[in-house]
Amino acid sequence: MKQLGVAISKEKDREFRICFSENDVRRACHMMVCGHYTESCMRLMEESGVTCELCYAVLTALGKYPSRIESN
Fold this sequence. Notes:
Strand content: 25-35%
Largest sheet: 3 strands, antiparallel
Shape: globular
Oligomer: single chain
Structural class: alpha+beta
Number of helices: 3
Radius of gyration: 12 Å
Order of helices and strands: EEHHHE
Distance between the termini: 22 Å
Helix content: 40-55%
Strand order of the largest sheet: 1-2-3
């Protein structure tokens, strides 16, 4: 299962990338007004490391938990 970094959290001098499963991110993305750009947005998250705070907010509201948290 693919995982996408959706948000970045900063704590003092450390940074964490919050990752969710691709299926959960796709579902959240389709729920938003900008959902017709789902593939472009997901490609940016996967290839360029761009985050989407709106997707993170929807995933949180749906009660989804991160599949992985990476420390940078």
